[in-house]
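S1.2 Input.
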Amino acid sequence: MTQDTWIQDITQDKTLQDLREPPLYKVFLLNDDYTTMDFVVEVLMDIFDKSFEEATRIMLHVHHKGRGLAGVYTKEIAETKVHQVHTRAQANGFPLRAEMERD
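S1.3 Output.
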């Protein structure tokens, strides 16, 4: 193997690594006994850009199953969404929590 071939192979490997999709993370909302259903719908619409119908469906799933998928994002965006949920909930006096896990 010549040096040029070796460099070309390394360059191709690096290019393939750079082109891979970043890992995705699921963001879930967790049920509690105090946060109102209307507030959860509002959060889903404002933070996760859901329609009223989809937000209502997710909220009911959270209410009945304990948690519901709000969206799937790259790590940094998922962390931001979780932080936004916690900040908005705290500012409104609700204990609503969100969590993320790798997809």
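S1.4 Remarks. The chain has a mean pLDDT of 91.
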